């Protein structure tokens, strides 16, 4: 993107019923931009559906502070507010951040600089990368990590943090992508990133310092339900992204669904071999030891072999680097599988004092199939996540720029 003169950045702050935090935090943001940010920047307060004095306060701030404006969107929805303001903006780089300023503002320059330079297309703050310093409640931490693991397992994403309220996009990229984004609420961020990744666009990641807002208004249960519906919709999505690739000269990439299907087939083939080996080992050891002990040892031996085979065959990881880490993580998935099969055996022996050996095998095989689904999800999203190629770029160089500088 060619920019003449000083690049212009517009930072959108979407708000709803934030009359207490809006004034102090917008003044703090404006002061930072005026004293420590090298690019010309405007702040847009995007009020989406407030029922308190938020919009009136925003208008007063726009009158008081140079480089601040306020817009009113009658319907609620963070995604709706961002889409409307970004679509009409004339700035070269479009960014947004949460009104609570949970993210340290020193990360703003590393966020937008690669977009100004034309090096990247989209930039995100990440709380889940090495170098990030995060203070938040265990519940929020678990939900965030679980959500991003789910995205990796279901949509084969490569970015590390979908929902950090700290993102930026080049205007020319936004013009192409925004009309394709359907969600108008919290899933907007995820959908935008998934589409960008599938189009082969370059996503720049910046580790951030982040402190949890104890007065967060996010309704977790409602947001989780909306996110799950969004993931289900995106898994069926047939959006044509080829025009976006052509516009920005990005190479065509393998269809993530085709790549995922191939990976599943390879995983299933390894699973069949592992299951056969498990059954043989179990039958051999069952003659000399109790069912639970035979089950544990057979699972442990086959788990090591299963992780090694999946590492190389299914996920394409070569060399000895991180092999021990992968095996240790594989053993965690083994523990989950063992708990499923052990509990199945316990239930069987509770119901039938001396079940037939064939019945034991049937029950254990069914439990192993359930454990296999869990194992694939964890392999996909966690065990090999540092080294395996992400599915959207399975046959092309990685397009995720995981910047570790702050």
Provide a brief overview of the structure:
The protein is an alpha/beta fold and 406 residues long.
The CATH homologous superfamily of the largest domain is termed: Spore Coat Polysaccharide Biosynthesis Protein SpsA, Chain A
State the CATH architecture of the largest domain: Alpha-Beta Complex
Shape descriptor: elongated
What percent strand?
5-15%
Give the C-level CATH assignment of the largest domain. Alpha Beta
Output the number of helix runs: 13
Order of helices and strands: EHEHEHEHEEHEHHEEHHHHHHE
- Biggest sheet: strands side by side, in what order? 3-2-1-4-7-5-8-10
Low-confidence stretches: 392-399
Q: Kindly state the percentage of residues in helix.
A: 40-55%
- The secondary structure category is alpha/beta
Membrane topology: Single-pass membrane protein; Multi-pass membrane protein
Subcellular location: Endoplasmic reticulum membrane; Membrane
Family: Belongs to the glycosyltransferase 2 family.
Organism: Kribbella qitaiheensis
